[in-house]
Amino acid sequence: MTGFSHASRRAFLGSAAGALAAQGRRGLKIFMHCDMDGSPGIFTREQAWYWENGVREHVAAEARELFTADINAASAAALAAGVTELIVCDTHHGGGNFIREKLLSDPRITYLYRSVGMENGKRRWMPGMDQTVHGLMLPGHHAKSFTKDAFLPHTWNHEWVDFTINGQSVGEIGIETCFAGHWDVPLIFVQGDEAACYETRRQFPGVITTAVKQGTTDACVGLDPATAQRETARGISEAIGKLHEGRMRPYKPTLPMTATLRMRTMDAAAKAAQRPGVLRLDDHTIEARVGTQAGVVKWLLGTGLDMTP
Hints:
- The longest helix is centred in the first third of the chain and has 24 residues, at 57-80.
- The protein has one domain (6-161, 169-253): Rossmann fold (3-Layer(aba) Sandwich).
- It is globular.
- Helix 3 packs parallel to helix 6.
- 44% of the residues are buried.
- Mean pLDDT is 93; it is low at 1-25.
- The chain is α/β, with parallel strands linked by helices.
- The strands form 3 sheets. A 7-stranded mixed sheet has the order 3-2-1-6-9-10-11, with helices on both faces. It has a 5-stranded antiparallel sheet with strand order 8-7-12-14-13.
- It is built from 8 helices and 14 strands.
- Strand 13 (279-280) and strand 14 form a beta hairpin.
């Protein structure tokens, strides 16, 4: 966490601990933002990116079954750990991966089948993420672009080589954590491959991680789904416990943020540089000053709050 003095940080943590104690008596609301690349049992590119040409139909069906079962297990673990309201959002490839009729049925769970939806008559990313949420969990996540010994590492799309916030290189884990931090919501748990978990611990010390596999770019090996789900449940329980104790901090970069993106091609950088307020630093790199954490990628993709219909 950057942008705070030691004194203000102590005051912030003290007030956060008191607030969480009070919230614990009233209820605990968690936002679970679910990707698929890091889910257990999904060991090949064909399984994870099943929309690509040539993917066999039964492989795609199996992958969605595995993903849905893992999210059910994670949801059940969160509820067992004391969560009283759970938002479960499908973000993989924009959403549409859950097998709806096989999802856990519980009145405490709200499912978002797409990562962009309507809220209060406006279109936005991660609807439901606001000041009423107490913690962010990221199951099934992957490492950022060009991470060594990572399964399907990427950041948003294949054109992005590196994305930085105030000089710190981040992937999708960091971008989503920054967005949640707009409302002082801390990242508390990440599940994925070993590289994604290492990236999380390095950038956000104290966040609980569960590694369920390891491998190379297009293939990996890992725990069987049942074992992975048990390990994930233990991680979620620990994360919820730390949150109740007031030991989880939101990511608060100094504002305005300097967001920098290096693109794979010159054409992609040139196109992005046409957006308002975007500066082209060189053939492949663009930069912008961003006034709010919720605007972390809106300057580039239009993705965030109050999106264009």
